[in-house]
Amino acid sequence: MFKVGDKVVYPMHGAGVIEAIETKEILGKVKQYYVLRMPIGDMKVMIPVSTVGDAGLRQVIDNETVQQVLDVLRKKRVASTANWNRRYRAHLEKIKTGDVFAIAEVVRNLTCRDKEKGLSTCERKMLDTARQILVSELALAKDIDHDGAMNLLINTVE
């Protein structure tokens, strides 16, 4: 169980801080909820405590793992011969896992592809989403602001 003040990652939304644990009645059912403050976009998210495992909520990575993520971003991408639709689905599955290394791969692959051949509109939106998720976690993990985390990411990807 998480506690107030914990830095956590909510897949497909990014990293945030648990601001409160509240009991609410919604649609006639009383449940406990984690209230997350997402620093990027200044959004609040409520996640039922009972569904945390299914939601994929996890702790923000530590400094050692940050270095491993940066190593993933530095690697050369593996060229994909799949059409954009297959690439898109494969990348979406990686993002949905919430795994920081998988998201870093998506950011690396799409960034490199954008430099080489350009991206479709869908892939460009996906790159922006994956980048925001990764930046939010890097910012909380390294205790830096959004711009610092974005610069770290941009300067790391080849």
Layout of strands and helices, then pairs:
Layout lengths: L6 E4 L3 E13 L2 E10 L4 E6 L3 H4 L2 E2 L3 H12 L9 H14 L2 H17 L4 H22 L3 H11 L2
Antiparallel strand pairs: 1-2, 1-5, 2-3, 3-4
Helix pairs in contact: 2-4, 3-4, 3-5, 4-5, 5-6
How would you portray this structure in words?
The structure is a single chain. The protein has helices at residues 52-55, 63-74, 84-97, 100-116, 121-142, 146-156, and strands at residues 7-10, 14-26, 29-38, 43-48, 58-59. The protein is α+β, with helices and mostly antiparallel strands and 158 residues long. It has two domains: 7-59, Beta Barrel (Thrombin, subunit H), CATH 2.40.10.170; 63-156, Methane Monooxygenase Hydroxylase, Chain G, domain 1 (Up-down Bundle), CATH 1.20.58. Strands 4-3-2-1-5 form a five-stranded antiparallel sheet. β1 (7-10) and β2 form a beta hairpin. α2 packs parallel to α4 (100-116), α3 (84-97) packs antiparallel against α4 (100-116) and α5 packs across α6 (146-156). The radius of gyration is 17 Å and the shape is globular. It starts with 6 loop residues before the first strand and ends with a helix. The mean pLDDT is 91.
